[in-house]
Specification:
Four copies of one chain form a homotetramer. By secondary structure, chain A is of the alpha/beta class. Chain A is built from eight helices and 13 strands. Chain A has two domains: about 80 residues, ACT domain (Alpha-Beta Plaits, 2-Layer Sandwich), CATH 3.30.70; about 200 residues, Formyl transferase, N-terminal domain (Rossmann fold), CATH 3.40.50. Helix content of chain A is about 35%, strand content about 30%.
Chain lengths: ~280, ~280, ~280, ~280
């Protein structure tokens, strides 16, 4: 028995669900779970979890699907249901990182952490407890571009499927982002789009909000404007200083990042323009 | 164009989704939304929203489905997508009732409120503002059975699809429940199964809980043990008396009841043993 | 027995709590609840609920307090614990209004609704069920200033302590706001400061957020930037259109407005710069 | 400057707040935060955070207080504002433990973890990463009493102020509990009082609830019936198996335990009968 996930998206048309279910049926695949969505603009998305025996050949299935849905704007992809390879980038804060390392250590993360990369050496002693390579790539004295070249060299060794920015506090250039297009997940410490940019907890304190939040999103070229994957919030009041908000917000940040990664690593997240469709 | 909902449940089998999608496709029906679930015990549930032209004949579709899925344990039902007819039962508390009446008044309830029935006359002046018949059926001096006979007489005139117990504070006999089997929705003012029975806020106060809740459920013959449709909660603390909990809990109660009714009236709720499957 | 609330604010100093408790003690007042807060900038706030016998004279107490705390930057106010007089302004949406009217009708609002004023006549039939005056003051063909003059004429008859903007969809001029300085409560249908301005649900939809919210705040001269009193949120996902968000958001709006008004009408909210302190 | 916390409880009486504030004022103590509560039964609780210079003598303050409040049923205690000494007990599950160890490692726990004690050796490799003593005290072949004697021997070496049961899956005898009366905090994996006893997630699954929860409480002699400190919840639906609930519930458990410990270790929790008062 093998388990796979069929991801499909394209222009909506009558009979799409029927075509897919028939092709899978005729290829001896058993659908475990199927979810679809049609956007108001008429774009169709479908995620299908299915089981099949060992003879299963993804290329045959995709070829059969293509015959039934010849429109080339429709894309099919079959992913094996297995752990993703990831590299984590961080700076000095540990809370998201330590949550991911602990889950990984106990086999509860749907990913293999290949390495941790940071522009500081502060978290190296902690990461080393978990027998995961730590790469300290200082940005001191380097241009942003030169620093990113160093990062890319390190990342190149690991060839990760996803980069996770677990409180990596530097802006990435479009050139870097393009190398991992739609494969970088960031956690931003505000309830986006409120408080874009630096020091969101300070901004929240100044504004006197009664709820703070965190947002996990894909990184694109516009700072803090990539497709949102997950958000969560926490109530605060006038007694919270900016520092209190920052401290209390950390629990929200790690919860949101964990939730988003669970969705991304199970191939549940489609990116559509500036939004995510989660099936 | 007509809109209908196909409800299907029965033993799981390979190809069920395929059979249904093919039959709908061949009957010129366009699937808008389809959700399915297979229980751990192997029971299959599917809810399909679809549009069709005016020629649509539900009997033809069901007959075609039956040919493809001959297993008689599998049940098919096609419901038109339209408002349900309901009667509301209440006692003296207004909060759930007034929320439903207001939504109904402004066309925001997916149901027609045919009448309100109560064992007290207290809420009559309020209900009369909304031009809805109010039936005061006192239980004074009557056995439970005799009182229910009176209620059934009133209900018989309206032939409602669902009864909504909007804080109706009397226990119903199995005989009464059987007349509206799986069609009575109740709101219980605790986070079931905590605090079954009378005075749940008093019980919550005595226990010193930090969260109170409310539960909307179908009524069966075991008090407060019918299939749960929706639940929600509110944080409390030591400053709340039992009376405070009761007052604050009312907002949770009406939110939960509204949510449950929205699900039930859109044919999204399957009852399976003592549980609900919500698709 | 009379119940009163002492509100005090000013520069922090050693012994303030002591002075107040001693003065109340010596005036035979029994403190039921006392909450204080000192801002990081050293501003002291205290709210004291107390009971006293019928001899109680607020002026004597304030005079005694002034002797102990002669700093004139410190302000004292004694409010009787009783319902506030309010006027509600609305436009066409009923959900916040109907929630307030229903609570008022059943004696559950800590305020007397003197009148409802709207720039449309749409909600008049509903309001008239509750025997509350409805004033239709159309803005058609009037400048903003001229329309506000008409509003002020109506409001002048009622002399309300607070104005509640229950989805009043027009911007108020500084001149109008100054007439009810710190006494106008608005409900904004977004999680401020996200989505300031018009059509926040449309903006939320375009941004693809996973959580929407509502914010109750005092109105000042900067649109949507007044001191925030309460906020709450609701999870949404890609299936929500802007219209769905608007519909579902209404329940959040009315919950948040009700919560904020409960705090304001119990004299629990201090305004400090652009923030609220809630004791 | 030293920081201390005054804890006071006893029968309510007129002037208590006044007496305390005057005594602190005259002893040159500056109140930072003061919260009080009077139970419906007339029991008074007050927690006062205060600063004082190095001359501060807790005994003098308590003696002064006693003169003003001679009623011996009133208890005063002055605790220095510093980290508590704790020992953690666990069995095989790591999630609460690893959260506490990580927070401790980074200096974010208001406690010193003196040791971890378990009836299994499973978590020893993980704990050893943090340089904290791990004591494997197997219960195999021992009566409950004999096992507890072994535990008490280990605990005796450390003399902890609090024991934290971070998923310690064994029932404690009254004899053991008496040794750490009101000083044992447990995390129970249900929304108490729902699902008391074993396998609460299995029970929740069987009942078909839509919300699961966790409860942190002090341990007394009645299983799962000690005073509740904190609770939190998570929404579930029909797709969750008992195992899914268990996995997802772990995040709630660790959040709730962390929250409860933060309150307990800051001397914010009074125990009153079977309830907690949190100031």
């Amino acid at each position: 028995m093998t388990k796979n996930i069929l991801l499909m998206e394209g222009p909506d048309a009558k009979g799409l669900v029927f075509h897919v279910t028939e092709v899978l049926f005729k290829n001896n695949c058993n659908i475990m779970k199927q979810d679809e969505f049609v956007s108001p603009s008429g774009h169709f998305f479908m995620r299908t979890d299915f089981e099949s025996d060992t003879e299963f050949d993804a290329e045959v299935v995709i070829s059969d699907l293509r015959k039934r849905v010849p429109n080339e704007d429709t894309k099919f992809k079959v992913n094996p249901a297995k752990k993703k390879d990831i590299v984590i980038l961080c700076t000095k804060e540990h809370h998201c990182l330590s949550d991911l390392l602990t889950r990984y250590h106990f086999g509860e993360l749907n990913a293999n952490i290949l390495a941790v990369v940071s522009n500081y050496d502060k978290l190296e002693p902690f990461v080393s407890k978990f027998d995961i390579p730590y790469h300290f790539v200082s940005h001191e004295g380097l241009t942003r571009e030169a620093h990113e070249q160093e990062l890319l060299k390190v990342l190149g060794k690991y060839n990760p499927q996803y980069l996770v920015l677990a409180k990596y506090m530097r802006i990435l250039t479009p050139n870097f982002v393009a190398k991992y297009s739609n494969r970088i997940v960031n956690i931003h410490h505000s309830f986006l789009p409120a408080f874009i940019g630096a020091n969101p907890y300070r901004q929240a304190f100044e504004r006197g909000v009664k709820i703070i939040g965190a947002t996990a999103h894909f990184v694109n070229n516009n700072l803090d404007e990539g497709p949102i994957i997950a958000q969560n919030i926490k109530e605060v009041d006038h007694r919270f200083t900016a520092k209190d908000m920052s401290r209390e917000g950390k629990d929200v940040e790690k919860t949101v990042l964990t939730k988003a990664l669970k969705l991304v690593f199970s191939d549940s997240v489609f990116i559509y323009g500036n939004k995510t469709i989660i099936l």
